[in-house]
Amino acid sequence: MANPSMSKHIQVESHMSLSGSNADNRILVKPSEQGAAIANLYNFVASKTGGSAISAPNVNEKAKSALMKLADALVATKGKSLIVCGTNNTAEQSLVFGINQLLGNIGTTVNFTNGSYQRQGNEADLLQLTKDMSAGSVDAVLFWNANPCYDFPMAKEFAEGLAKVKLKVSLNAILDETTAQCTHAAPEHHNLESWGDVEPKRGMYSLIQPTITPIFNTRQGGQSLLVWSDSANFNKSAEQPFYEYLKSTWQSTIMPKTSSTNFQEFWDKSLHDGILEVNSTAVNAPSYKLNPADLVNNITKPSSSPLEISFIKNLGVGAVNMLIIHGYKKWLIQ
């Protein structure tokens, strides 16, 4: 065997997940014990790496024993491990960062040069938009692959605020709840009819290619934006305007990051390979002074209740996923 060594995956969770079902070891904690589990793991690692202990809440004995063994394994592989979390609690996120610091993972497995550009949504900004619309201080709003009148927790308040906006434009591919509230609808092509590109993480590019010609009277979303902005770099008279714009952009901004000199060869290879990775300028780890003791008061505390419930989001839920997986038929997700 060329590489007999394999990585080991240990999952700490409250419910069964796809990752947990494939983990080498799975440590069960109650939903209210997740913060305590992070704090206890921090202490166990700190005790073996010269760090200072914090006042961690208790976690169940079985999980505590498993977390101690996990700490031993992590310290034995300093600089080669990675701790991640799925919590929205910023104090718990900071403690996880602190564990990675203790293990010497910052700058090795925690890489700031090729950061992920996924999940960039900001719920606080959306909440502020809801308040601004309700106050009548928003004149225009544009939606693209977003249906907050359905899947935003404050959908009712959002829709009421949206009613006060004069210009409301939707680029959504279907007549969903938000589009129905808009003054203008400019539906874009389906994904299978579209050209486009994505950069899921810094330095990694991928091209979106259509597999069928457009069926309905729709238009590429990016093309609509270019037409409305009257972009000087956009040739509206071209047979496939957005396709030509995409190629031109790759020639002027992406190819110079590579050693290629012939654009047609570069373009054909990029289409063929599906993914293009280029070297990114190194980004140093930001200065981050962590005071773990100050974070303990803000982590989730274990509950004394004998009954706890954990709500999880189905992978098929969400505007884009619902369109692709369910054809936006609501009864299919119930």
Notable features of this structure?
single chain, 334 residues, three-stranded antiparallel β-sheet, Molybdopterin oxidoreductase domain-containing protein
Description:
This is Molybdopterin oxidoreductase domain-containing protein. There is one protein chain. The chain is α/β, with parallel strands linked by helices. It folds into three domains: 10-112 and 288-303, no CATH class; 123-185, no CATH class; 191-277, no CATH class. 36% of the residues lie in helices and 10% in strands. The protein has twelve helices and eight strands. It has helices at residues 18-21, 34-49, 61-76, 90-102, 123-134, 148-151, 155-162, 221-229, 241-254, 263-273, 292-295, 319-326; strands spanning 10-13, 25-28, 140-143, 167-170, 184-185, 196-201, 204-208, 275-277. A three-stranded parallel β-sheet has the order 3-4-5, with no helix packed on it. Strands 6-7-8 form a three-stranded antiparallel β-sheet, with helices on one face. Helix 1 (18-21) links the parallel strand 1 and strand 2 (25-28). The relative contact order is 0.12. The model has no long low-confidence stretch (mean pLDDT 91).
Draw up the topology in text.
Blueprint: E1 10-13, H1 18-21, E2 25-28, H2 34-49, H3 61-76, H4 90-102, H5 123-134, E3 140-143, H6 148-151, H7 155-162, E4 167-170, E5 184-185, E6 196-201, E7 204-208, H8 221-229, H9 241-254, H10 263-273, E8 275-277, H11 292-295, H12 319-326
Parallel strand pairs: 1-2, 3-4, 4-5
Antiparallel strand pairs: 6-7, 7-8
Helix pairs in contact: 2-3, 2-4, 5-7
Protein name: Molybdopterin oxidoreductase domain-containing protein
Organism: Candidatus Defluviibacterium haderslevense
